[in-house]
Amino acid sequence: MKFAIIKERKSPLDRRVVFSPKTLLQIKQQYPAVKFKVEKSKIRIFPDEVYKLTGFLVLKHVADSDVFIGVNEVSIDSLVPNKSYFFFSHTLKKQPYNRELLRALLDKKITFYDHEAITDIKQNRLIGFGRYAGIVGAYNGFRAWGLKYDSWELPKANMLSDQKALHAHLKKIQLPNIKILLTGNGNVAKGALEILDVLKIPKVSIEDYVSKTFTTPVYCNINTLDYNTRMDGKAKSIKDFFKHPERYASTFNQFAEHTDLLITGHFFSNGAPALYTEADVKSARFKIKVVADISCDLNGALASTIRTSTIEHPFYGYNPQTGLETDFKAPDAIAVMAINNLSSELASDASIWFGQMFLKHVIPAFFNNDADGILERARMTHDGKLTPRFAYLQDYVDGKE
Ligand SMILES: NC(=O)c1ccc[n+]([C@@H]2O[C@H](COP(=O)([O-])OP(=O)(O)OC[C@H]3O[C@@H](n4cnc5c(N)ncnc54)[C@H](O)[C@@H]3O)[C@@H](O)[C@H]2O)c1
After folding, report:
1. What is residue 262's three-state secondary structure?
2. Does ligand 1 come within 6 angstroms of the Cβ of 145?
3. Helices (DSSP H) in 337-393: which residue ranges?
4. Where residue 200 falls among pLDDT bands split at 50, 70, 90?
5. pLDDT one-digit tens code per residue, 230-256
6. 253 is in an annotated binding site
7. What structural domains and CATH numbers belong to the chain?
8. What one-character-per-residue DSSP string does 4-53 give?
9. Which of 181, 267, 286, 346 measures 20 to 30 Å from 55, CA to CA?
10. Residues 134, 140, 144, 146: is their CA dihedral positive or negative?
């Protein structure tokens, strides 16, 4: 089996990679039969030279490989027909901007595995950059707060060597007695929790969060059923919510009235009610001043997330009265951070983490006949067709939705 690490071609340029030179070496030691080539790249966080010194071929052309592994969407013109690919296609939620890419994967008879679809039998995701997105996103939330209120100046995460350096800077800040709300319970939320732990911020219960004042900063972590209720008053359940989000209404305002800094890590499905709307934000009771929107959905989940932001320009302001963008330091503005490639800011740590997960969960499947069904579950396209698990995307492919 011949594998290739392909170069990232998406703009803005992304320095992440699935395997660091060290992880590749680990794979080689565990599976001596495996052959890896690395496509030349000027931007990858680990330079070509380091791969060469570790004993890997770095080449301009790697098209003769069997399995191509990348991070972001691969440009349609560089897809090699009849091969296998792993990358994030961003098509699972029927994102319109990647419909053509999915069509090309089908037309070119590519066997395509989406990193997002690499799950265990219970559908829990096994690999992803979520943890590092959570770490960097929460850090950026505190960075935004410091800049908005001229309280401290944290450096940009991508200027720091690694997570340790980021922790060292965070430990120097003196937080006021703010209330921080974190949504979600997946990898992003867990990454964000690591940052709240570094800051030694006490966690409080929902009851205390919405009813008490505190003499220190505190945080509360909520999940889907804490801020959604069934409109018909019937008993709610997470399974029911996943199946019928349209039956639910948001009760998020009970939290917005008590929150200064919101850090999001929830999963927002198509059809779910917005956490807060334009009308909610206009209310005098709406208190949130800084939003680190790591979930970063642009389909109205949070009224204040009107666009994504970039690593270069991470913050913008949202004027709650006009619904328009403004300076994030303006007194009435909600400061928004909505970067959708957050883990790129800590590209080295994030790549090492991702590669270790891939080595643990995916590489064995190539050598044990996919005993745990990892490849089968992640396979989206094969021989020009969507696999049964992804048949729900057929209308999207056909342009019917
Ligand atoms: N900004 C960024 O750079 C960045 C990076 C990674 C992830 N994200 C986003 O952050 C969000 C969370 O990612 P994660 O890695 O923590 O995900 P995850 O897969 O680790 O966890 C998602 C959680 O959501 C739950 N869930 C699944 N389907 C759901 C549904 N239909 N409705 C409500 N909850 C559901 C799951 O049970 C799980 O607890 C996602 O929307 C993801 O796109 C953003």
Report:
1. strand
2. no
3. 347-361, 363-367, 374-378
4. very high
5. 999 999 999 999 999 999 999 999 999
6. no
7. 2-127+346-397 (3.40.50.720), 130-345 (3.40.50.720)
8. EEPPP--SS-----S--HHHHHHHHHH-TT-EEEEE--SS-SS-HHHHHH
9. 346
10. positive
Structure tokens at 75: 């440009």
User: Residue 226: pLDDT above 90?
Assistant: yes
Q: Is 206 annotated as a binding residue?
A: no
Query: CB-based burial of residue 396 (10 Å sphere; 0-12 exposed, 13-18 middle, 19+ buried)?
Result: buried
From the CA of 116, how far away is ligand 1's center (Å)?
10
> CA-to-CA distance for 146 and 144, rounded, in angstroms?
5
- Which of 240, 250, 263, 267 best tests ligand 1's pocket when mutated (most atoms within 8 Å of CB)? 267
269 lines ligand 1 (CB under 6 A): yes
Q: Is 339 annotated as a binding residue?
A: yes
pLDDT band at 104 (very low <50, low <70, confident <90, very high): very high
Nearest CA to ligand 1 atom 26: 267
CA 90 – ligand 1 centroid, Å: 13
ipTM summary value: 0.96
- Can you give the pTM of this predicted structure? 0.91
Whether ligand 1 lies within 6 angstroms of the CB of 305 is answered as no
- Please say whether the beta carbons of 339 and 314 come within 8 A: yes
- Please give the C-alpha separations between residue 399 and each of 27, 76, 96, 382, 387, in angstroms, as whole numbers: 41, 18, 9, 20, 18
Please indicate if the annotation marks 270 as binding a ligand: no
Cβ of 125 below 6 Å from ligand 1: yes
**Quick check: CB of 88 below 6 Å from ligand 1?**
no
CA dihedral 255, 259, 265, 270 (to 10 degrees): 50
Residues 6+ apart with CB under 8 A from 132: 191, 342, 343, 346, 349, 350, 353
Dihedral angle of Cα 232, 237, 239, 242, to the nearest 10 degrees: 50
Across the chain, mean pLDDT equals: 97
21 Cβ inside 6 Å of ligand 1: no
Q: Is 294 in the pocket of ligand 1 (CB under 6 A)?
A: yes
Torsion of CA 121, 98, 358, 269, to 10 degrees: -40
Q: Is the pLDDT of residue 401 over 90?
A: no
* 188 contacts 196 by C-beta, under 8 angstroms: no
Structural tokens at position 69: 């592994």
pLDDT band at 37 (very low <50, low <70, confident <90, very high): very high
CB-ligand 1 contact for 309 (6 Å cutoff)? no
